[in-house]
Amino acid sequence: MTNRVVITGYGITSPIGNTPEEFWKNLEAGNSGIDTIKKFDATATGISVAGEVKDFPFDKYFVHKDKKRMDTFSLYAVYTALEALNMAGINPEDTELNHDRFGAIIGSGIGGLPVIQEQGERLATRGPKRVAPLFVPLSIANMATGNVALRVKANGVSRAEVTACAAGTNAIGSAFREIKHGYADVMLAGGTEAAICEFGVAGFANLTALTTETDPKRASIPFDKDRSGFVLGEGSGILVLESLEHAQARGANILAEIVGYGSTNDAHHMTTPLPDGYGAAKAMQLALEEAGIQPSDVGYINAHGTSTQANEKGEALAIHTVFGDDENVLVSSTKALTGHALGGAGGIEAVATLQAILNQYAPVNAGTTELDDNTSVINVVLGQGKQHDIKYAISNSLGFGGHNAVIALKKWEGE
Q1: Where is the Ketosynthase family 3 (KS3) domain positioned along the sequence (predicted)?
Q2: Which of 224, 249, 274 finishes a domain?
Q3: I need a surface site. Which of 113, 179, 301, 326 has the fewest CB within 10 A?
Q4: Known active-site residue 197
Q5: 141 vs 61, 72, 138, 164, 411, CA distance in Å?
Q6: By residue range, what is the domain housing residue 325?
């Protein structure tokens, strides 16, 4: 016997909003959060724009010393986890909550990159004795999960997914399976990243992965014929997942159901996906098979869509392989609005996919004006978002190392 798994809450911090209301308002309107880099002088990197979190509400849950005990990627994760629990109506202090069956799986592609840069500079200029004692626990990628678990007393299943840009979606899929197969009642799951620093931007720029476009409105244009590289983003999205039985027993407000998960590897190249999209297509097929649905049942796909040539050629072919020419399947990449938050992307985009279902609305693929021959095989939402019948939706995440992860969500209809 397996459990059905439902979503009862979520938290978000992103370039287009730090609350569900603000995030949805900008998602619906197609308002981009990409702008000139403010965190540091990026002139020497040759890159000028990024999707930075703005006005992060630090004071809501933190005190000053928390900045010294957690890197930003952990702060983002703790914030979104607490927001998600508040929405779900779960109080970590509740004695009726079985903490041994309450867990967290949170993905991050890199972890504390800014503190790695800072302490590397300190090592080079001041010597090994001046490296901060907390350098390691500040920087290692599992500490988003660790800090969340510590804050909310999540004693159950606990680990980090570190699968580059697929990490957030892998985390949600893994948490889904933990509940489905009876190892947990409640899970916090998603992704977080805060890699916009000189080290991070320089690394991706020298890999020629980032766009050098200076116009924020034309920088991240997924599937457009003129796309030229991705825009680095940051933020976190975390869901509260529960078994249906657990959620109903406490009278929770159920938002949607997770019904499928697919995970594969291209085993092809360190950074470039398979040209024919086979690995991504297989991950989508696996998610649909677990959900017990046909491709024609899906109304919306939140694509990985990074605004890079190789990635989008492969993903578009993968989508077409699975869904064919079905015009009912609308596709958009919300990275046009947020940039690419690496390991945090899957969490942020799970929230976007959930909101698409809740509002029966397919967000626009903002900024894109003309598809090329490689991407015109799919039904990209251009111009403005569309009201649309969305009973099922999927969210794709494809990462360096060949990692592919897909989750399938279903509209909650009270059954």
Answers
A1: 2-411
A2: 249
A3: 326
A4: no
A5: 21, 12, 9, 11, 32
A6: 262-411
